[in-house]
Amino acid sequence: MSLCFSHPVCSPVLQAARGYARRVTRKRKDIPSHLDDLPPTLLKKDYANLPIMNSVDDVVKRLLSLEMASQKEKMKVKTQQLVEKVRRSPNDSGSFEVQVAILTARIRTLEEHLQRHPKDKSNRRCMLMDVDRRRKMLGYLRRVNYSTFESTCKQLDIQYSPPPALHPPCHQALAGQEGSLHQGIPGEAEAESSREAEAEERVAGESKGSTGTAGEAGAREAGTGGDSCVVAQPGWHRQADNKHLPKDLKPLLM
Questions:
Q1: Tell me: the pLDDT tens digits for 145-186?
Q2: I need a labelling partner for 231 at 20 to 30 A (CA). Which of 11, 46, 187, 249 fits?
Q3: Region Disordered: what ranges (predicted)?
Q4: Cα 143 to Cα 149: distance, rounded to the nearest angstrom
């Protein structure tokens, strides 16, 4: 069988181009997982405590073991193992130590996921929220019961770093002066004295104005500067009321 290189399909240039355009399969990085230490023969969480599992076939045990389990089921087993290390009693399911263990398992799973998918912003946000919640719980344990805090960090292999102390920001006018924390702001005394002088002048002006108005009111009452009052004559209201009556009825009401 001979190849016809004159044909465009069989040309060596086209064959080289096909080989160059072949899809290259990239090997994924082998990222170590915190679930690797789980034995594959371990049963799932829902079937581990069933007494009937001692009499079933090996094929059934293999189907119900972690060898055929998903990552979610492995995560349940790993979380249970971490909780067993720090729980106070067999019925403890809500203490701070148990919550820290649950958050630790979730955080480590999200860390591995983000190493493979670094652009997953939603899971990154969830991981940061879990980290912040765990830090608050550990801070509470550190303040209340330091021995429990220390044992929890040791059992779960957590490195706790306390948050930095918060300091109030320095004023901009005091930033470049020595001993500025013990001195006042430059020019503050002069501004305060000028404000007090303006307030005194304002009070003096108001007192003068009130004196003038009081004098005018007294003069008006004394009759020196005001209009003379009109004295009402007796029977004036009758005249006003009878003004609109007919002429034949007015003499009867006078």
A1: 999 999 999 999 998 888 777 666 655 555 554 444 444 445
A2: 249
A3: 178-254
A4: 9
